[in-house]
Amino acid sequence: MSSPLLEVQRLNKTFGRVVAAHNVDLAFQPGVLTSIIGPNGAGKSTLINLFSGSLAPDSGRVLFEGKDITHLPIHRRIRMGLCRSFQIVNVFPRLTVFDNVQIPLLALRKRARRLFRAVDREKDVHQEVVEILNRIGLAREVKTLASALSHGDQRLLEVGIALAAGPKLLFLDEPTAGMNSVERNKILENIKALSGEGWTTFVIVEHDMDIVFSLSERVIVLHHGVVIGDGTTEEIRNNPKVREVYLGEEVME
User: Fold this and answer.
1) Contact status, residue 48 vs residue 204, Cβ threshold 8 Å
2) Domains detected in the chain
């Protein structure tokens, strides 16, 4: 087995009397499409915040490619290849789809001040933006303002913005929230395709069991900050602790 991209060791985080993470030990291998699930308040988003640097743990370690990043700021983690999206759509609504993806590319190359230069003078960046938009299925929306996109396409654009940073590991926090069935299917197909490329490893925080079991190779289940299940979809379906927590809901069917 290859070395993990990300590993956390005995990670703990509390908010007063609320336990958000308790002695969490996890490792994420390259290329394995993973979902993190759990009831409301299980600690899913908190865990992603701990991984990405938005929150500091009370104790424990976070390792990325074997390097201790427990106390590294967010921007340093991004440059190493650890990125995330958010539950709330996070795009630049008054900029075009093209510029939304161009900005992080220029920033990554420390050329952000050149945003408003003629595009033909930034041919390498232009080509990479076009390639990313092709990969996420928004190539026809190059000149469209982000605010004019459907909710589903805005979520796709957010994935494109994250991909512009060249992530090795990308966490998506409820990427299908608020979508209709057509939009949901579109983004799921896109995530599967992107994962299959092998450039980026995806970890998805979700509550929709249909999405989890149709998409994932591995499922991690949290409950009150504790990992109570970790395995294939079939192993999770048959896990007695998970059955008890979900009280026979659709995850068990």
Assistant:
1) no
2) 6-252 (3.40.50.300)
